[in-house]
Amino acid sequence: MDDVIVWTIIIAFYAPLHYLLPVLVLFITGSETEAVRRQLIRRALIDSTLSMVAAFAVVIYLAQHDRISIAMLLLMLSIGVPFVRIWRHRREIGES
Known about the structure:
Helix content is 86%, strand content 0%. It is mainly alpha-helical and 96 residues long. The chain is elongated, with a radius of gyration of 15 Å. 15% of the residues are buried.
């Protein structure tokens, strides 16, 4: 199979996890007002986009150099990046 097709399939399965899990956590947890929650969701979506783009750039580079195990580990770890940012943003809001 062509590399572009393979990476498109990987991204198609990875993106929903990367975007929906942080948003789901923000919907379920927290006692913020609706406006603050909307702001947190917007930040989480931006963080998810940036971390996914950065992760896939590094992962594709690693995969081209036959480091597929490290690449997949990086993808798995990058799912947690938006959660770290959510925690930091909530902590900042709590301190204000």
